[in-house]
Amino acid sequence: MKSLLLRPAALVVSCLIAFSAATPRAMGAPLALPKNDYTTLPLLRGKENQLLLRLPANGRAATIALDTGSPVTCVDESKSKLFNLKPSSTENSPPMGITVNGIRHRVATIPLLLFGNLQVRDIPVVLIDLTDLNQVLKARRDRQNDAILGLDTMHSLGAVIDCGGDRLILRQNEDNGSFGAMLKRAGWREVPMHLNEGHLIVNGFANHIPTQFIIDTGSPVTVLDQNFCKVHKVTLSDAAFGLKAIHFETKGARIGKLKDLQIGKNDLGQSLVAVFDVTSLLKTRTNGGGGPNALLGSRTLARTQAFIDCETMKLYLKPPALPRDWGF
Question: What is the pTM of this model?
């Protein structure tokens, strides 16, 4: 049984984006794991490539999106009864709050969630209005979200996301590096990640230009900042399209064609990316400050059969056999 604490954050953002993209193809049988060492929970994949976890909550099943682009775990404001939420305030204290994408939100606590045979108590959550985002998903006949499982909870759980096998993996015991060693023996390549403003960051290259990517399972596709593409003359499509995230919306996104995408030392070859104002989404001036200006999205993570180790901050990739194919 575990209890979790909410880490303070001056700036947090959910990069859950509604955008049409092809669902990744099946990657074959998932890597076998010792049953006594790991708990594995199956994940569903929505039409927007989002990874979804179904958990029992107050006698019902809750649909929870896994979003490593969100530093905090969020619950839809209308789902208080579903999760049996407890307020953060008491008679002698004002309600706790936290800033999400520049807007102040209340904080509450989920008394208990069951992750397989693991009981997790007192999960701090931020209350978010997911109505607009769920309306987009409903219009596309996709699954609506009751909550977003953010990086704070996944880190505390010691979670690993298997993006190729669509599984959430929880360690039962201390592995002392055995999980990473097992992946490397099976052909995956390890790439270190680091934290920046509550986001998991990995270093890479876009058209051979050094680029910092936020690992973002909430974004269906990989994204580059529009100013980066302008400066480095990335080829863009003529047609524009719209997308939506929490407290963010744009109708001016376009598709960019990269001649080469590289994550760590892994060459992913030619790639299509979505292009819009990432700095506006993150509410920061990333390009001038040397921060991240790109998102490594769910489609690319599935294509490379990625494992995201939220505890050790290691990313494991298996580059595609034909890296010269265009694709998200």
Answer: 0.88
